[in-house]
Amino acid sequence: MPQRFCMIKKFLAAVFCLIATYSFIPQKENKPNVIIIFMDDMGYGDPASYGGGPYKTPNLDRMAAQGIRFTHFYAAQAVCSASRAGLLTGCYPNRIGIHGALWPTAPMALNNDEETIAELLKSRGYKTGMVGKWHLGSKPPFLPLQNGFDEYLGLPYSNDMWPVHYDGKPYTDTTNSRSKYPPLPLIEGNNTIRIIKTLEDQSELTSMYTERACKFIRENKKGPFFLYLAHSMPHVPIAVSKPFRNKSGAGLFGDLMQELDASVGAVMRTLEEQGLTKNTLIVFTSDNGPWLNYGNHAGNTGGLREGKGSSWEGGQRVPCIMRWPGEIPAGVVSSEIASTIDLLPTVATICGAKLPAKKIDGVNILSLLRNEKDARPRDHFVYYYGVNNLEGIRKGKYKLVFPHKGRTYKNNLPGYDGFPGAQPNVDVPLALYDLSIDPGETLDVKERFPEVVKELEALADTYRNTLGDELRKMPGTERREPGKVVMK
């Protein structure tokens, strides 16, 4: 018995020694992969899980069932370049001097001094790749490779910025300003590798982007990696590859929605094949609402007011679905306020990266992703548009709209089959809306709740002091300069 006890004692001592030794061996840090899929002009009501159809979006439906679907998620601003600047930097775009949709010859770009998500994650050892539409500077030193990405394939700006008419034919009228656009370049790295000349060329973009995205995942499966897949569609002119044509039963736009959904499915399938599903956060969202004056070539807002280019809900509230098995509970629907500017601090927290040295506006929404009880990381949201117009502010269920000139799609019939209708600006008066019962912003309740108007006005004044407000002729004290493009 004593001998047996001695043997057991020696065995346990050896086990404890092994455990102690192993505990001092540096363990490989588990860094999750991150994929952001960013649509162009996809409306709040376009995915089937948000009421879209009669086309099908089974992959987005599956992603929503396996993760979280947001119902009050906002783009940084309701227009291309500003929205993308906000996504990548975690800032309201006017803080960093970006506004509107930058033309190919725009004198400004995203300042290289601003820290992007890609740069933050690259400092943590991430491989960073971008595929698709950039729209934050059309030439070096303002392309993705100068802003934290290891590789890039895509268009430097919107797919309608080309010298081609709405009918798909090159302009012959040289007096038309659109005829002055340069040829539309497909860029790899910093170099043009192809010119996109026709609608048939454009029909290849979605599948080309998808193939490149999946290739990036396979090549970096040992991780960690960050992939930013920014589709050029469904921004007009819309075009669909041959395998998806006339398949939806819902016209060209329906065909395109099914191709874009299939792109999401291909990304998820590649993750599954490489055994990366559980260690990858996927974010799916859009840069702004639909360009409604294009009629049957545009999407829908799910009943929200107006669309792209306006600070009404239809312009700035967008679909957003996130999936991360084991971290994000399945089948969650969140009605809390969140925004694309919140992605940077959230991703930085998840990946153990430092926040930018300069001030940002985003907040960490990881508590929402985990569906924590009573989580409300974002208290309010401000709606800027134009160069620096503060057009509205939301806190809780109330949204206060300030007097301004705003785009409307309601006074004219939309265009059809690729041609636009008119989108004039009209005078917008001061109004208060209760979005919990009036998401369409039709009932002004400012006379009923003057104390809410007063509270939101005071909150808005704090932003006017720091970020400015051209409507009040206030420059702001915290705005930063954009990058300056040297014109040749």
Topology:
Layout: H1 2-23, E1 33-39, H2 58-66, E2 68-70, E3 73-74, H3 80-89, E4 108-109, H4 117-122, E5 127-132, E6 151-154, E7 184-188, E8 191-196, H5 199-202, H6 205-219, E9 225-230, H7 251-273, E10 280-286, H8 313-316, E11 320-323, E12 332-334, E13 338-339, H9 343-351, H10 366-369, E14 380-385, E15 389-395, E16 398-401, E17 404-407, E18 425-428, E19 431-434, H11 450-466, E20 483-484
Helix pairs in contact: 6-7
Family: Belongs to the sulfatase family.
Organism: Chitinophaga niabensis
GO molecular function, one term: metal ion binding
Structural features, described:
Residues 1-25 form the signal peptide. Residues 32-352 form the Sulfatase N-terminal domain. Belongs to the sulfatase family. With 488 residues, the protein is an alpha/beta fold. The protein has two domains: 33-379, Alkaline Phosphatase, subunit A (3-Layer(aba) Sandwich), CATH 3.40.720.10; 382-484, Arylsulfatase, C-terminal domain (2-Layer Sandwich). It contains eleven helices and 20 strands. The chain has helices at 2-23, 58-66, 80-89, 117-122, 199-202, 205-219, 251-273, 313-316, 343-351, 366-369, 450-466, and strands at residues 33-39, 68-70, 73-74, 108-109, 127-132, 151-154, 184-188, 191-196, 225-230, 280-286, 320-323, 332-334, 338-339, 380-385, 389-395, 398-401, 404-407, 425-428, 431-434, 483-484. A ten-stranded mixed sheet has the order 8-7-6-5-9-1-10-11-2-12. It has a four-stranded antiparallel sheet with strand order 14-15-16-19, covered by helices on one side. The longest helix has 23 residues, at 251-273. The termini are far apart. Mean pLDDT is 94; it is low at 15-28.
